[in-house]
Design brief:
It is a single chain. This protein has one domain (7-164): Thiol Ester Dehydrase, Chain A (Roll), CATH 3.10.129. Strand 4 and strand 5 (89-99) form a beta hairpin. It is globular. The longest helix is centred in the last third of the chain and has 29 residues, at 136-164. The strands form two sheets. The chain has a five-stranded antiparallel β-sheet. By secondary structure, the chain is an alpha+beta fold. The protein starts with 6 loop residues before the first strand and ends with a helix. The protein has two helices and seven strands, in the order E-E-H-E-E-E-E-E-H. The structure holds coenzyme A. Coenzyme A binds next to strand 3 and strand 6.
């Protein structure tokens, strides 16, 4: 089996900004949560593609909290990095901030976690490079990602057991 070379978190980090346009908003002028998620999904894809391969897909989105509304005309920034890798999957964490261009005030509006899976030429899950964590924050995020993964597995096993018992 070929051993994949590790990659640093900094090699796949992404930061992008988008101006919130009127067509992104509901009639009350607040940006749709789905718009933010769609932009975040593309950011997660770019980050995972840099770490592993452009052939990767989103398998789950965890813990999406919309803490504050985002308004038309604000600049939304997405900061993403690979937090954790399993065998074929990667967790990409995204911090989302909205900036009011008139006041310059920047608010942390969302954080979310996307699990992406790398695929081979036949569309089957394929191993991803190990993640080389360097800073204290990167090491903490890796441990937190592993905890989220373990919780997700536990939950899906409990659900499967319930279904098998016909409950
Ligand atoms: C991604 C996909 C190929 C995985 O298939 P699968 O049969 O579940 O494959 P596996 O069981 O080998 O799981 C692959 C990895 O995904 C992880 N995984 C699977 N389901 C998961 C879930 N719901 N949440 C978190 N991780 C999950 C597994 O733990 C495994 O990770 P690991 O190798 O790091 O341990 C398949 O689910 C798929 O094609 N989904 C659709 C993806 C898609 O179309 N997304 C939207 C468009 S991009």
């Amino acid at each position: 089996m070929i051993e994949l070379k590790g990659k640093k978190v900094s090699e796949s980090r992404i930061e992008t900004a988008h101006l919130m346009m009127p067509n992104y908003a509901n009639p009350a002028g607040k940006i749709y949560g789905g718009t933010i998620l769609s932009l975040a999904d593309a950011v997660a894809y770019m980050c995972a593609a840099r770490h592993a391969t452009p052939r990767c897909v989103t398998v789950s989105v965890d813990q999406v909290d919309f803490r504050e509304p985002i308004e038309i005309g604000e600049v939304v920034t997405f900061q993403a990095c690979v937090n954790y890798v399993g065998r074929t999957s990667m967790e990409v964490g995204i911090r989302i901030e909205a900036e009011n261009l008139e006041t310059g005030v920047r608010r942390h509006t969302n954080s979310c976690y996307f699990t992406m899976v790398a695929l081979d030429e036949r569309g089957k899950p394929t191993p991803v490079p190990p993640l080389l964590t360097e800073t204290k924050d990167e090491k903490r995020r890796f441990k937190e990602g592993r905890i989220r993964r373990e919780h997700a597995k536990e939950l899906s096993e409990k659900r499967r057991a319930l279904r098998e018992r016909g409950e």
